[in-house]
Amino acid sequence: MLLSAQIQLAHFILLRCVSKLQSIFADMLGTACSWMGWLFSPRTRAAGHPGARAALAERDSRAAQRTPTPSSVNYHLTRKCNYKCGFCFHTAKTSFVLPIEEAKRGLQLLKEAGMEKINFSGGEPFFHEGGEFLGKLVQYCKQDLQLPSVSIVSNGSMIKEGWFKKYGKYLDILAISCDSFDEDTNKLIGRTQGRKSHLDNLFKVHSWCRQYKVAFKINSVICSFNVEEDMRENIRQLNPVRWKVFQCLIIDGENAGESALRDAEKFVVDDEQFQAFLDRHAEIQCLVPESNLKMRDSYLILDEYMRFLDCRGGRKDPSKSILDVGVENAIQFSGFDEKMFLKRGGKYVWSKEDMKLDW
Q1: Which segments of the chain are extended strands (E)?
Q2: What is the pLDDT of residue 352?
Q3: What is the torsional sign of CA 264, 181, 280, 283?
Q4: What is the mean pLDDT of residues 272-287?
Q5: For the segment 189-229, what is each residue's pLDDT rounded down to a tens digit?
Q6: Could you read off the pLDDT of 148-181 as tens digits, one per residue?
Q7: Is 85 a catalytic residue?
Q8: What GO CC annotations are associated with the protein (predicted)?
Q9: Closest listed residue to residue 192, CA positions, set 178, 171, 207
Q10: CATH code of residue 277
């Protein structure tokens, strides 16, 4: 009986101690909340209290360092290409392509981090394995990861109808790069291979996109060879969902500089020339202009090793691979300006189900 009474007494004392500690903690929490409310109140800020200023500065610093969400990612899965465009800023310095299971693992990591749209690019993304590698990734992203939008940027020269039959249903948008509707101009730029007509390929792929219900898009780089061209009639005829118009961009080590495989200096147009081109085509409703200022920091670019590329310094400085350090760690070194991404219209209706297109 004595032992039982002692146990009950000990249990009672323990309960009292826990209750007292809870009360003390509640008082401390209430005091802290009151202090924080005072610290960040408009009256305190207006008074310029040193403690408030320091706390606000720390809070703003933390907000500025917030990890951006990789909602839209451009994965340059290969550097190899069958074209030799003189202004290309992702040139073929290596033939490396990730094993497909590693590529899928990286895409899964990106989905978990908030990716909604993936854009496959190159080089020429259809170059590797005749487009089979690309097709499997497109299918994986739409079918397994269930991403709202899966897109590709291609020069169009290596696409076969069989690819559309097999993988077209998994693809939302196919963008074909076309800088001129004059075949001689395309040859001067380097957007050609042998005797094949780039424009014939463009119109053929356009018809396949319509047949297999893939949204068709055009990308054009405006340079010294095409800046005076009037493309309005052809753009109206093709009627893409978007016509992305880029100002020729210089990236040190890629298309300029001693270690570069290209010298794009002769292709460069200034802001005034670029704006004149935009003004000439202003009536085209699907036109989406992108100056160098908008383009440099507002894209999340993954290279063939799945490293984010920071273009802020006029180069493409790589982070560590997301496969090694994760997305959150690697994206801190991407130089990505999320505000500029939103300002330039980086988020739009990018799922073909939502476009309500008249096929």
Answers
A1: 72-76, 117-121, 149-154, 173-177, 215-222, 242-247, 287-290, 301-302, 307-310, 317-321
A2: 94
A3: negative
A4: 97
A5: 999 888 889 999 999 999 999 999 999 999 999 999 999 99
A6: 999 999 999 999 999 999 999 999 999 999 999 9
A7: yes
A8: endoplasmic reticulum membrane; lipid droplet; mitochondrion
A9: 178
A10: 3.20.20.70
Which range marks the domain in which residue 289 is found? Answer: 72-355
The answer on 21 and 80 residing in a single domain is no
Model confidence at 88, pLDDT cuts 50, 70, 90, reads: confident
pTM: 0.80
Are 58 and 151 found together in one domain?
Answer: no
Catalytic residue among 17, 33, 85, 311: 85
Task: Detail the DSSP E strand segments found in 94-147.
Answer: 117-121
Catalytic-residue membership of 81: yes
Average pLDDT of the chain? 84
Single out the catalytic residue among 33, 81, 223, 248: 81
Whether pLDDT at 133 is above 90 = yes
Boundary residue ending a domain (38, 64, 90):
64
Instruction: Reply yes or no on whether 223 is catalytic.
Output: no
Q: Are residue 233 and residue 296 in the same domain, yes or no?
A: yes
Of 17, 88, 248, 311, the catalytic one is: 88
Where are the alpha helices (H) located in 140-268, listed in sequence order? Answer: 161-167, 183-189, 198-211, 232-238
For the chain, report the end-to-end CA distance as a whole number of angstroms: 88
